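User: Second chain of the day. Same drill as before.
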Amino acid sequence: MIQLPVTSEMKNITTNYLYNPQVFILPPWPEIYRTDGERKQTWEEAAETYDVMRSTYIDYGYTPIVVPPDTPQARANFILRNIIQSDFQQ
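Assistant: Same format as last time:
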């Protein structure tokens, strides 16, 4: 997003040190989005960050699993169900 180059060392690391191929990603949620002392991005920047992160995961061979907006407990249950039903337990 800030146009920093990806170095050959960083590319090497992403190729040789892989994590689980499935990753959870939480999209920005307009109804609850607020800026504060820690969250300084505008809504547009947050949405762009999500898009770039999702694309980057895919570009590096990961499968993003989108966690839908819901209560914290429902989101946790969604993640746990996916872990139990998938190859996360490798």
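Helices lie at 8-16, 43-59, 72-85.

User: Great, on to the next one.
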